[in-house]
Amino acid sequence: MKEKSFEITPWKVSGDIDYDRVIREFGVSRIDENLLKRFEKVSGELHPFLKRGIFFAHRDLDWLLSEYEKGNEFFLYTGRGPSGKIHLGHLVPWIFTKWLQDKFDVELWFQMTDDEKFYFNEKLSLEETNRLAYENALDVIALGFNPKKTIIFTDTDLAGALYKYAAKIAKKITFSMIRASFGLKESSNIGQIFFTSMQAVPAILKSEIEGRNVPCLIPHAIDQDPHFRLARDVLPKLGYYKPASIQSGFLPGLQKVEKMSASNESSAIFTTDSEEEVRAKVMKAFTGGRISVEEQRKYGGNPDICSVYQYYYMLFMLDDSELNNIRGKCLKGEIMCGECKEILINKINNFLKEHQRKREEARKEIDKYIISEDSDLKKLLAKKR
Ligand code: TYM
Protein backbone atom coordinates (compact mmCIF):
# COMPACT_ATOMS: atom_id res chain seq x y z
CA MET A 1 0.00 0.00 0.00
CA LYS A 2 1.55 3.31 -0.99
CA GLU A 3 0.16 6.84 -0.85
CA LYS A 4 1.46 10.12 0.41
CA SER A 5 1.33 9.74 4.17
CA PHE A 6 2.14 6.12 4.99
CA GLU A 7 3.30 2.80 3.58
CA ILE A 8 2.57 -0.71 4.82
CA THR A 9 4.06 -3.86 3.31
CA PRO A 10 5.21 -7.02 5.11
CA TRP A 11 8.75 -5.63 4.91
CA LYS A 12 8.34 -1.92 5.54
CA VAL A 13 5.98 0.22 7.57
CA SER A 14 6.42 3.97 7.71
CA GLY A 15 4.55 7.22 8.14
CA ASP A 16 1.43 8.19 10.02
CA ILE A 17 -0.94 5.28 9.69
CA ASP A 18 -4.60 6.03 9.08
CA TYR A 19 -6.25 2.79 10.18
CA ASP A 20 -9.62 3.67 8.64
CA ARG A 21 -7.91 3.97 5.29
CA VAL A 22 -6.04 0.72 5.94
CA ILE A 23 -9.37 -1.06 6.44
CA ARG A 24 -10.69 0.31 3.16
CA GLU A 25 -7.58 -0.29 1.11
CA PHE A 26 -6.68 -3.73 2.46
CA GLY A 27 -10.30 -4.86 2.32
CA VAL A 28 -10.32 -6.22 5.88
CA SER A 29 -13.44 -5.82 8.05
CA ARG A 30 -13.57 -3.62 11.11
CA ILE A 31 -14.14 -5.39 14.42
CA ASP A 32 -17.35 -3.62 15.41
CA GLU A 33 -19.46 -3.61 18.58
CA ASN A 34 -21.64 -6.49 17.39
CA LEU A 35 -18.69 -8.71 16.68
CA LEU A 36 -17.17 -7.83 20.05
CA LYS A 37 -20.40 -8.81 21.80
CA ARG A 38 -20.47 -12.06 19.88
CA PHE A 39 -16.82 -12.73 20.73
CA GLU A 40 -17.48 -12.06 24.40
CA LYS A 41 -20.43 -14.44 24.38
CA VAL A 42 -18.29 -17.23 22.97
CA SER A 43 -15.04 -16.60 24.88
CA GLY A 44 -16.48 -15.40 28.20
CA GLU A 45 -14.52 -12.14 28.28
CA LEU A 46 -12.75 -9.62 26.09
CA HIS A 47 -9.01 -9.00 26.14
CA PRO A 48 -8.09 -5.29 26.54
CA PHE A 49 -6.52 -5.47 23.06
CA LEU A 50 -10.03 -6.07 21.71
CA LYS A 51 -11.78 -3.53 23.94
CA ARG A 52 -9.23 -0.88 23.04
CA GLY A 53 -9.28 -1.55 19.32
CA ILE A 54 -5.61 -2.60 19.24
CA PHE A 55 -6.86 -5.63 17.33
CA PHE A 56 -9.10 -3.62 15.05
CA ALA A 57 -9.80 -5.72 11.95
CA HIS A 58 -10.43 -9.26 10.80
CA ARG A 59 -11.26 -11.58 7.96
CA ASP A 60 -14.00 -14.15 8.62
CA LEU A 61 -13.78 -14.03 12.42
CA ASP A 62 -17.58 -14.26 12.57
CA TRP A 63 -17.47 -17.44 10.49
CA LEU A 64 -14.78 -18.89 12.75
CA LEU A 65 -16.90 -18.21 15.85
CA SER A 66 -19.93 -19.84 14.23
CA GLU A 67 -17.90 -22.94 13.42
CA TYR A 68 -16.57 -23.00 16.99
CA GLU A 69 -20.11 -22.78 18.37
CA LYS A 70 -21.04 -25.73 16.17
CA GLY A 71 -18.20 -27.72 17.75
CA ASN A 72 -15.78 -27.29 14.85
CA GLU A 73 -12.72 -26.22 16.85
CA PHE A 74 -10.10 -24.02 15.20
CA PHE A 75 -6.34 -23.88 15.60
CA LEU A 76 -4.10 -20.81 15.80
CA TYR A 77 -1.26 -19.97 13.47
CA THR A 78 1.20 -17.12 13.77
CA GLY A 79 4.91 -16.52 13.23
CA ARG A 80 8.12 -14.57 13.16
CA GLY A 81 10.69 -13.65 10.52
CA PRO A 82 13.92 -14.16 12.47
CA SER A 83 16.10 -11.23 11.40
CA GLY A 84 17.38 -10.06 14.79
CA LYS A 85 16.24 -9.42 18.32
CA ILE A 86 12.61 -9.36 19.42
CA HIS A 87 11.17 -5.96 20.29
CA LEU A 88 8.11 -5.10 22.35
CA GLY A 89 6.01 -4.58 19.21
CA HIS A 90 6.40 -8.24 18.21
CA LEU A 91 4.96 -9.24 21.56
CA VAL A 92 1.61 -7.55 20.84
CA PRO A 93 0.23 -10.27 18.52
CA TRP A 94 1.90 -13.03 20.54
CA ILE A 95 0.46 -11.94 23.90
CA PHE A 96 -2.94 -11.90 22.25
CA THR A 97 -2.33 -15.32 20.65
CA LYS A 98 -1.44 -16.75 24.06
CA TRP A 99 -4.66 -15.33 25.48
CA LEU A 100 -6.63 -16.92 22.63
CA GLN A 101 -4.90 -20.24 23.23
CA ASP A 102 -5.85 -20.13 26.92
CA LYS A 103 -9.44 -19.01 26.30
CA PHE A 104 -10.22 -21.56 23.60
CA ASP A 105 -7.74 -24.24 24.69
CA VAL A 106 -6.53 -24.74 21.13
CA GLU A 107 -3.34 -25.67 19.32
CA LEU A 108 -0.88 -23.07 18.02
CA TRP A 109 1.43 -23.57 15.06
CA PHE A 110 4.25 -21.01 15.13
CA GLN A 111 6.28 -20.56 11.95
CA MET A 112 9.83 -19.17 11.95
CA THR A 113 10.48 -17.96 8.42
CA ASP A 114 14.27 -18.22 8.35
CA ASP A 115 14.04 -18.59 4.55
CA GLU A 116 12.11 -15.30 4.22
CA LYS A 117 14.64 -13.29 6.18
CA PHE A 118 17.46 -14.82 4.13
CA TYR A 119 15.77 -13.87 0.86
CA PHE A 120 14.90 -10.35 1.99
CA ASN A 121 17.99 -9.34 3.91
CA GLU A 122 21.20 -8.85 1.97
CA LYS A 123 23.37 -9.17 5.07
CA LEU A 124 21.98 -12.31 6.70
CA SER A 125 23.16 -15.83 5.88
CA LEU A 126 20.73 -18.72 6.02
CA GLU A 127 22.71 -20.20 8.91
CA GLU A 128 22.27 -16.94 10.83
CA THR A 129 18.52 -16.62 10.26
CA ASN A 130 18.13 -20.24 11.35
CA ARG A 131 20.15 -19.55 14.52
CA LEU A 132 18.07 -16.44 15.19
CA ALA A 133 14.89 -18.49 14.84
CA TYR A 134 15.95 -20.59 17.82
CA GLU A 135 16.92 -17.47 19.82
CA ASN A 136 13.59 -15.81 18.99
CA ALA A 137 11.72 -18.98 19.96
CA LEU A 138 12.90 -18.36 23.53
CA ASP A 139 10.87 -15.13 23.58
CA VAL A 140 7.82 -16.96 22.30
CA ILE A 141 8.15 -19.73 24.89
CA ALA A 142 8.74 -17.13 27.66
CA LEU A 143 5.22 -15.84 27.08
CA GLY A 144 3.88 -19.08 28.52
CA PHE A 145 2.30 -20.91 25.59
CA ASN A 146 0.97 -24.36 26.46
CA PRO A 147 3.80 -26.82 25.64
CA LYS A 148 1.30 -29.60 24.94
CA LYS A 149 -0.50 -27.49 22.34
CA THR A 150 2.23 -25.39 20.74
CA ILE A 151 4.45 -26.37 17.84
CA ILE A 152 7.28 -24.06 16.77
CA PHE A 153 9.28 -24.81 13.63
CA THR A 154 11.57 -23.19 11.09
CA ASP A 155 10.91 -23.38 7.37
CA THR A 156 14.34 -24.67 6.40
CA ASP A 157 14.46 -27.43 9.03
CA LEU A 158 11.11 -28.79 7.93
CA ALA A 159 11.47 -27.97 4.25
CA GLY A 160 11.19 -31.63 3.23
CA ALA A 161 7.74 -31.90 4.78
CA LEU A 162 6.53 -28.39 3.91
CA TYR A 163 7.74 -28.13 0.32
CA LYS A 164 5.08 -30.36 -1.18
CA TYR A 165 2.30 -28.07 0.07
CA ALA A 166 4.22 -24.91 -0.84
CA ALA A 167 4.60 -26.27 -4.39
CA LYS A 168 0.86 -26.87 -4.72
CA ILE A 169 0.18 -23.35 -3.52
CA ALA A 170 2.93 -21.78 -5.66
CA LYS A 171 1.44 -23.28 -8.82
CA LYS A 172 -1.74 -21.26 -8.23
CA ILE A 173 0.09 -17.93 -7.81
CA THR A 174 1.36 -15.91 -10.75
CA PHE A 175 4.15 -13.36 -10.76
CA SER A 176 1.66 -10.60 -11.50
CA MET A 177 -0.33 -11.52 -8.36
CA ILE A 178 2.89 -11.26 -6.35
CA ARG A 179 3.82 -7.97 -7.98
CA ALA A 180 0.40 -6.52 -7.16
CA SER A 181 0.40 -7.81 -3.57
CA PHE A 182 3.97 -7.14 -2.53
CA GLY A 183 5.37 -4.61 -4.95
CA LEU A 184 8.18 -6.94 -6.01
CA LYS A 185 10.05 -6.23 -9.23
CA GLU A 186 11.62 -8.24 -12.03
CA SER A 187 14.95 -7.66 -10.32
CA SER A 188 13.69 -9.26 -7.08
CA ASN A 189 15.33 -12.60 -6.38
CA ILE A 190 13.09 -15.56 -7.14
CA GLY A 191 13.14 -16.71 -3.51
CA GLN A 192 11.26 -13.52 -2.63
CA ILE A 193 8.74 -14.19 -5.36
CA PHE A 194 8.16 -17.78 -4.20
CA PHE A 195 8.24 -17.09 -0.47
CA THR A 196 4.57 -16.30 0.21
CA SER A 197 3.67 -19.89 -0.64
CA MET A 198 5.69 -21.00 2.42
CA GLN A 199 3.80 -18.59 4.67
CA ALA A 200 0.51 -20.08 3.47
CA VAL A 201 1.43 -23.68 4.32
CA PRO A 202 0.90 -23.67 8.13
CA ALA A 203 -2.71 -22.58 7.57
CA ILE A 204 -3.43 -26.05 6.12
CA LEU A 205 -1.06 -28.28 8.12
CA LYS A 206 -3.65 -29.16 10.73
CA SER A 207 -6.16 -30.07 8.04
CA GLU A 208 -3.56 -32.33 6.45
CA ILE A 209 -2.76 -33.97 9.78
CA GLU A 210 -6.39 -34.50 10.74
CA GLY A 211 -7.48 -35.59 7.31
CA ARG A 212 -10.37 -33.08 7.31
CA ASN A 213 -10.69 -29.31 7.00
CA VAL A 214 -9.88 -27.58 10.29
CA PRO A 215 -10.60 -23.84 10.66
CA CYS A 216 -7.51 -21.69 11.19
CA LEU A 217 -7.22 -18.29 12.90
CA ILE A 218 -4.14 -16.16 12.22
CA PRO A 219 -3.42 -13.28 14.64
CA HIS A 220 -0.88 -10.77 13.29
CA ALA A 221 -0.26 -7.05 12.81
CA ILE A 222 -1.78 -5.65 9.62
CA ASP A 223 1.54 -5.62 7.71
CA GLN A 224 1.29 -9.40 7.18
CA ASP A 225 -2.18 -9.24 5.65
CA PRO A 226 -1.05 -9.33 1.98
CA HIS A 227 0.25 -12.88 2.55
CA PHE A 228 -3.05 -14.07 3.91
CA ARG A 229 -5.16 -12.22 1.37
CA LEU A 230 -3.36 -14.31 -1.26
CA ALA A 231 -3.60 -17.49 0.82
CA ARG A 232 -7.35 -16.96 1.13
CA ASP A 233 -7.55 -16.69 -2.65
CA VAL A 234 -5.58 -19.83 -3.33
CA LEU A 235 -6.38 -22.33 -0.56
CA PRO A 236 -10.06 -22.86 -1.49
CA LYS A 237 -8.87 -23.75 -5.01
CA LEU A 238 -6.96 -26.60 -3.39
CA GLY A 239 -9.98 -27.72 -1.36
CA TYR A 240 -9.22 -26.04 1.99
CA TYR A 241 -11.07 -23.46 4.08
CA LYS A 242 -9.98 -19.85 3.77
CA PRO A 243 -7.96 -19.06 6.90
CA ALA A 244 -9.59 -16.48 9.19
CA SER A 245 -7.38 -13.69 10.50
CA ILE A 246 -7.36 -10.93 13.09
CA GLN A 247 -5.18 -7.83 12.72
CA SER A 248 -3.58 -5.48 15.21
CA GLY A 249 -2.10 -2.06 14.65
CA PHE A 250 1.54 -1.29 15.44
CA LEU A 251 3.26 -0.46 18.67
CA PRO A 252 5.11 2.71 17.69
CA GLY A 253 8.78 3.44 18.15
CA LEU A 254 9.62 5.75 21.02
CA GLN A 255 10.78 8.60 18.84
CA LYS A 256 7.54 9.17 17.05
CA VAL A 257 4.23 7.43 16.63
CA GLU A 258 4.87 4.91 13.86
CA LYS A 259 5.69 1.19 13.83
CA MET A 260 8.44 0.09 16.21
CA SER A 261 11.21 -1.16 13.99
CA ALA A 262 14.29 -3.16 14.85
CA SER A 263 16.24 -1.17 12.28
CA ASN A 264 16.06 1.91 14.48
CA GLU A 265 17.91 0.68 17.59
CA SER A 266 17.28 3.71 19.78
CA SER A 267 13.56 3.85 19.13
CA ALA A 268 12.87 0.13 19.72
CA ILE A 269 12.96 -1.64 23.06
CA PHE A 270 14.28 -5.15 22.75
CA THR A 271 13.35 -7.96 25.12
CA THR A 272 17.02 -8.42 25.95
CA ASP A 273 17.69 -4.74 26.78
CA SER A 274 19.25 -3.90 30.16
CA GLU A 275 17.57 -1.61 32.68
CA GLU A 276 19.97 1.17 31.70
CA GLU A 277 19.23 0.76 28.00
CA VAL A 278 15.51 0.95 28.67
CA ARG A 279 16.00 4.05 30.79
CA ALA A 280 18.12 5.78 28.15
CA LYS A 281 15.62 5.01 25.37
CA VAL A 282 12.52 6.06 27.31
CA MET A 283 14.22 9.25 28.47
CA LYS A 284 14.68 10.22 24.81
CA ALA A 285 11.07 9.38 23.93
CA PHE A 286 8.89 11.76 21.98
CA THR A 287 6.04 12.99 24.22
CA GLY A 288 3.03 15.25 24.00
CA GLY A 289 4.59 17.67 26.48
CA ARG A 290 4.68 21.47 26.24
CA ILE A 291 7.82 23.50 25.76
CA SER A 292 8.12 24.44 29.44
CA VAL A 293 6.98 23.12 32.81
CA GLU A 294 4.96 26.32 33.31
CA GLU A 295 3.09 25.85 30.05
CA GLN A 296 2.47 22.22 30.81
CA ARG A 297 1.05 23.03 34.25
CA LYS A 298 -1.17 25.67 32.67
CA TYR A 299 -2.39 23.93 29.50
CA GLY A 300 -1.68 20.23 30.15
CA GLY A 301 0.00 17.76 27.79
CA ASN A 302 -1.34 15.86 24.77
CA PRO A 303 -1.44 12.08 25.37
CA ASP A 304 -2.80 11.44 21.88
CA ILE A 305 0.49 12.25 20.17
CA CYS A 306 2.70 10.87 22.96
CA SER A 307 4.68 7.68 22.46
CA VAL A 308 4.91 7.10 26.23
CA TYR A 309 1.12 7.16 26.44
CA GLN A 310 0.92 4.74 23.49
CA TYR A 311 3.05 2.30 25.48
CA TYR A 312 0.64 2.56 28.38
CA TYR A 313 -2.35 2.17 26.10
CA MET A 314 -1.02 -0.82 24.17
CA LEU A 315 0.95 -2.77 26.74
CA PHE A 316 1.71 -1.35 30.15
CA MET A 317 -1.59 0.00 31.54
CA LEU A 318 -4.16 -2.52 30.50
CA ASP A 319 -6.25 -1.55 33.52
CA ASP A 320 -8.69 1.17 32.40
CA SER A 321 -8.84 3.06 35.68
CA GLU A 322 -5.06 3.33 35.88
CA LEU A 323 -4.86 4.52 32.27
CA ASN A 324 -7.67 7.06 32.66
CA ASN A 325 -6.10 8.39 35.79
CA ILE A 326 -2.77 9.15 34.11
CA ARG A 327 -4.52 10.51 31.02
CA GLY A 328 -6.56 12.88 33.19
CA LYS A 329 -3.46 14.04 35.05
CA CYS A 330 -1.62 14.66 31.78
CA LEU A 331 -4.49 16.64 30.27
CA LYS A 332 -4.82 18.77 33.41
CA GLY A 333 -1.09 19.44 33.67
CA GLU A 334 -0.82 17.57 36.95
CA ILE A 335 1.99 15.30 35.79
CA MET A 336 5.16 16.28 33.91
CA CYS A 337 6.74 14.14 31.17
CA GLY A 338 9.78 13.27 33.29
CA GLU A 339 7.64 11.71 36.00
CA CYS A 340 5.51 9.91 33.43
CA LYS A 341 8.63 8.49 31.77
CA GLU A 342 9.84 7.20 35.17
CA ILE A 343 6.59 5.28 35.60
CA LEU A 344 7.01 3.71 32.16
CA ILE A 345 10.66 2.85 32.78
CA ASN A 346 9.66 0.99 35.95
CA LYS A 347 6.86 -0.84 34.22
CA ILE A 348 9.00 -1.91 31.26
CA ASN A 349 11.89 -2.97 33.49
CA ASN A 350 9.61 -5.00 35.77
CA PHE A 351 8.13 -6.71 32.75
CA LEU A 352 11.54 -7.37 31.15
CA LYS A 353 13.06 -8.70 34.37
CA GLU A 354 10.41 -11.42 34.48
CA HIS A 355 10.50 -11.96 30.72
CA GLN A 356 14.30 -12.32 30.69
CA ARG A 357 14.14 -14.84 33.54
CA LYS A 358 11.53 -16.91 31.69
CA ARG A 359 13.49 -16.51 28.46
CA GLU A 360 16.54 -18.11 30.07
CA GLU A 361 14.39 -20.90 31.53
CA ALA A 362 13.00 -21.48 28.07
CA ARG A 363 16.43 -22.74 26.94
CA LYS A 364 15.69 -25.89 28.93
CA GLU A 365 12.11 -26.13 27.66
CA ILE A 366 12.71 -25.56 23.98
CA ASP A 367 12.55 -29.25 23.02
CA LYS A 368 8.98 -29.43 24.27
CA TYR A 369 7.94 -26.87 21.65
CA ILE A 370 10.15 -27.28 18.62
CA ILE A 371 9.85 -29.75 15.80
CA SER A 372 13.19 -29.61 14.02
CA GLU A 373 13.21 -32.92 12.16
CA ASP A 374 11.42 -33.32 8.87
CA SER A 375 10.66 -36.91 9.77
CA ASP A 376 8.69 -35.84 12.88
CA LEU A 377 6.36 -33.61 10.88
CA LYS A 378 6.13 -36.27 8.17
CA LYS A 379 4.97 -38.76 10.83
CA LEU A 380 2.23 -36.35 11.90
CA LEU A 381 1.26 -35.91 8.28
CA ALA A 382 1.29 -39.64 7.59
CA LYS A 383 -2.49 -39.87 8.00
CA LYS A 384 -3.28 -38.57 4.56
CA ARG A 385 -6.38 -36.75 3.47
P1 TYM B 1 7.83 -10.28 11.79
O1 TYM B 1 8.95 -11.04 12.38
O2 TYM B 1 8.11 -9.06 10.99
O3 TYM B 1 6.82 -9.87 12.94
C1 TYM B 1 6.31 -10.83 13.86
C2 TYM B 1 4.90 -10.41 14.26
O4 TYM B 1 4.92 -9.14 14.88
C3 TYM B 1 4.07 -8.22 14.20
N1 TYM B 1 4.69 -6.89 14.37
C4 TYM B 1 4.19 -5.94 15.17
N2 TYM B 1 3.08 -5.89 15.91
C5 TYM B 1 2.81 -4.76 16.60
N3 TYM B 1 3.64 -3.68 16.61
C6 TYM B 1 4.78 -3.67 15.88
N4 TYM B 1 5.58 -2.61 15.90
C7 TYM B 1 5.11 -4.85 15.11
N5 TYM B 1 6.12 -5.19 14.29
C8 TYM B 1 5.86 -6.44 13.85
C9 TYM B 1 3.97 -8.77 12.78
O5 TYM B 1 2.81 -8.35 12.11
C10 TYM B 1 3.98 -10.26 13.04
O6 TYM B 1 2.68 -10.70 13.39
N6 TYM B 1 6.61 -13.03 7.72
C11 TYM B 1 6.37 -12.86 9.15
C12 TYM B 1 6.53 -14.15 9.93
C13 TYM B 1 5.31 -15.03 9.85
C14 TYM B 1 4.02 -14.71 10.33
C15 TYM B 1 3.21 -15.84 10.03
C16 TYM B 1 3.52 -13.61 11.02
C17 TYM B 1 5.24 -16.28 9.28
N7 TYM B 1 3.97 -16.77 9.40
C18 TYM B 1 1.86 -15.86 10.42
C19 TYM B 1 2.17 -13.62 11.38
C20 TYM B 1 1.36 -14.73 11.07
C21 TYM B 1 7.33 -11.81 9.70
O7 TYM B 1 8.36 -11.54 9.16
O8 TYM B 1 6.91 -11.28 10.93
Low-confidence stretches: none
Question: What radius of gyration results from the CA coordinates?
Answer: 21 Å
CATH third-tier fold name of the largest domain: Rossmann fold
For the record, the count of structural domains works out to 2
Q: Output the CATH homologous superfamily of the largest domain.
A: HUPs
CATH architecture of the largest domain: 3-Layer(aba) Sandwich
**Helical amount:** 40-55%
- What strand order characterises the main sheet? 3-4-9-8-5-6-7
Q: How widely separated are the two ends?
A: 37 Å
Largest sheet: 7 strands, mixed
What does this protein structure show overall?
The protein is α/β, with parallel strands linked by helices and 385 residues long. It folds into 2 domains: 249 residues, HUPs (Rossmann fold); 98 residues, Tyrosyl-Transfer RNA Synthetase, CATH 1.10.240.10. Strand 1 and strand 2 form a beta hairpin. Helix 10 crosses helix 12. Helices cover 51% and strands 11% of the residues. The chain is built from 18 helices and 9 strands. The strands form 2 sheets. A 7-stranded mixed sheet has the order 3-4-9-8-5-6-7, sandwiched between helices. Strands 1-2 form a two-stranded antiparallel sheet. The protein is globular. Bound molecules: tryptophanyl-5'AMP. The site of tryptophanyl-5'AMP has 24 residues, from strand 5, helix 5 and strand 8. Tryptophanyl-5'AMP binds next to strand 5, helix 5 and strand 8.
